[in-house]
Amino acid sequence: MVTLQSYLTLSALVFSIGITGIIINRKNIIIVMMCTELLLISVNFNFIAFSHQLQDLSGQVFVFFILTVAAAEAAIGLAILVALYRNKKSISVSELNTLRN
Amino acid sequence: MMLLEIIFYVFASVLICASLGVILFKNPVYSAFSLILAFITTGLLWLLLEAEFLAIVLVLVYVGAVMVLFLFVIMMLNINIEEENSGFTKIAPIAIFLGLVIAAELIALFWIQSDHFIGEASFSSSDISANNTLLLGTELFTKYILSFEIAGFILLLAIIVSISLTLRSRKNVKKQVARDQISADPKKRVRMVDIKKGDM
Question: Whole-model pTM?
Fold first, then answer.
């Protein structure tokens, strides 16, 4: 029988992989944004699992809104990325130090 | 019931491998494809949890729109892969350590406090699985109507912001400016000159 703990463990693993990816990647912002999507998907996984467990639809409604905000976030992030690349000719994380000093 | 377990564990391992692939591939295009696999697998696992509408929405919106946007940007930007991945191993031990600690904490939390969660997820056909789309739509358009409108507004905002961020007006390009053409005033353009006979 697949228990709730199995789903939660799976989502915890995906979450930690996403966080590892954000920290490990210093050279490419696109990978960082993809890892953010991984984090969001693992959180959504928790919501869906609990929604199924508690037989309550509010969790799924919340996932719907998270998907909306995540799509908006991805669009704006990629727009910022394109503007950044146009100005600096690079999308490396370690070169984004314009606001330092 | 045994079949469900097999399906769950197969898809779970595919999901873990795909999300590892996202962070381990050197080429960002491969990472994007790996993320697409992760999304599709997640959608299939949500089908197991009787969230059919959201599973379809995940595949349609994420794989169909967001990941295509990602791939579009990746291929448009023309990144030098070999250069971008130098210095990968310097911070890797810390990152892996942090990831392991977070995973261990979360999993320990779930399994130690397991009596707070009621045993096993039931796959019985109950009220929630009757017609997932209908129930979700009813909930959205009655109880959560204000949040729904705000979500639509956020999407509109995202459109406006991303267009205005990427729109650029080039200098030194010859083009028509409709506003100037329409607002042209004959009094400013035409100068009436009295020419007397024998002036020239």
Answer: 0.83
Give yes or no for a contact between B66 and B36, defined as CB atoms under 8 angstroms apart: no
Pair B6, B67 in one domain: yes
Residue B123 pLDDT exceeds 60: no
Note whether B75 and B17 are same-domain residues: yes
**Is B107 within 8 Å of A12 (Cβ atoms)?**
yes
Quote the CA–CA distance of A25 and B31 in Å, as a whole number. 12
pLDDT digits (tens, 9 = 90+) for B135-188: 888 888 999 999 999 999 999 999 999 999 988 877 788 888 888 888 888 888
Same-domain status, B3 and B74: yes
| B120 phi, psi to nearest 5 deg | -125, 150
The answer to whether B15 contacts A14, with C-beta atoms less than 8 Å apart, is yes
Question: Chain A contacts of B31, Cβ < 8 Å?
Answer: 30-31, 34
What is the extent of the structural domain holding B159? 126-168
> Which ipTM did the prediction report?
0.91
Which of residues 4 through 63 in chain A touch B, CB cutoff 8 A? 4-10, 12-21, 23-28, 30-31, 33-35, 37-38, 41, 44-45, 48-49, 51-53, 55-58, 60-61, 63
